[in-house]
């Protein structure tokens, strides 16, 4: 069973729709802030996705052949504090939620962690801090800046991709989960998952649901990772640590 944490209501409902359609693995969608998540609530979940958006990371894992039975955590921390389009407040911005995610990592010790951030965050010291924090917890880390165009997308979209791997054995995942996040009513997803990026954004801007230009849906798509690029990073990591053959056999 998967765990999805997503604070934005429209993106959270999008996740539920994708789960209902069988496009991403079944799981619980938690709409609380990551700051309110208690580590013990995550025990029993095999895969956990934080800042889950519209499900880019679980799709990337599927594309890479990562088995649903293999534990992994993913996350794309808010980019606004470090984006070139933002105010550049960096670590002083309250939307810098890496410390909250690190707290959960420290307490639950997942064996593998994949993450993404805007490339501009490197200049703010974001990667240095994250790697230092993770290495201090016994993880080996790697990172690369990849463009979406490298995975045949029609835009450049530089992103920092990172991975952390723990050599130690993963703790048991058979403990029962505590609490079940509530579900909202189903709403229609405004665009199909595999629609090309330019046309998807165009359609999102004109779909009306009571919000001007469907701002919630547009932001969810704009902030989403490119799953194909993430999948390339996951596959490169699997090859580097000798997991590639195992993933191929499980696919």
Report what the structure shows.
There is one protein chain. β3 (47-50), α2 and β4 form a beta-alpha-beta unit. This protein has one domain (2-177, 190-250): Rossmann fold. It contains 8 helices and 7 strands. The radius of gyration is 17 Å and the shape is globular. It starts with a strand and ends with a helix. The model is unreliable at 169-218 (pLDDT under 50). It is α/β, with parallel strands linked by helices and 251 residues long. Helix content is 32%, strand content 16%. The protein has helices spanning 9-20, 56-64, 98-108, 126-135, 197-206, 215-222, 227-240, 244-250, and strands at 2-5, 27-30, 47-50, 72-75, 112-118, 139-147, 158-166. The longest helix has 14 residues, at 227-240. α2 (56-64) packs across α7 (227-240) and α5 (197-206) packs antiparallel against α6. Strands 2-1-3-4-5-7-6 form a 7-stranded mixed beta sheet, with helices on both faces.
Tell me which CATH architecture applies here.
Answer: 3-Layer(aba) Sandwich
Percent helix range? 25-40%
Q: What's the number of extended β-strand segments?
A: 7
**Form type:** globular
Order of helices and strands: EHEEHEHEHEEHHHH
């Amino acid at each position: 069973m998967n765990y999805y944490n997503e604070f934005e209501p429209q993106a959270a409902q999008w996740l539920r729709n994708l789960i209902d359609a069988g496009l991403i693995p079944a799981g619980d969608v938690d709409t609380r802030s990551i700051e309110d998540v208690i580590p013990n609530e995550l025990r029993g979940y095999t895969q956990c996705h934080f800042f889950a958006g519209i499900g880019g990371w679980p799709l990337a894992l599927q594309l890479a052949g990562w088995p649903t039975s293999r534990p992994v955590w993913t996350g794309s921390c808010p980019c606004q504090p470090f984006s070139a389009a933002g105010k550049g407040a960096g670590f002083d911005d309250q939307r810098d939620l890496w410390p909250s995610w690190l707290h959960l990592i420290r307490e639950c010790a997942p064996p593998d962690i994949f993450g993404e951030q805007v490339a501009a965050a490197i200049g703010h010291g974001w990667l240095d801090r994250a790697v230092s924090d993770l290495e201090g917890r016994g993880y080996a880390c790697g990172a690369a800046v990849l463009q979406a165009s490298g995975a045949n997308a029609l835009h450049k979209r530089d992103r920092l991709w990172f991975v952390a791997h723990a050599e130690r054995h993963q703790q048991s995942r058979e403990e029962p989960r505590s609490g079940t996040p509530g579900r909202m009513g189903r709403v229609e997803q405004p665009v199909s998952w595999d629609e090309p990026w330019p046309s998807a954004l165009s359609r999102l801007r004109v779909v009306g649901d009571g919000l001007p230009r469907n701002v919630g849906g547009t932001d969810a798509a704009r902030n989403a990772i490119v799953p194909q690029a993430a999948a390339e990073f996951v596959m490169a990591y699997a090859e580097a640590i000798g997991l590639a053959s195992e993933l191929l056999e499980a696919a």
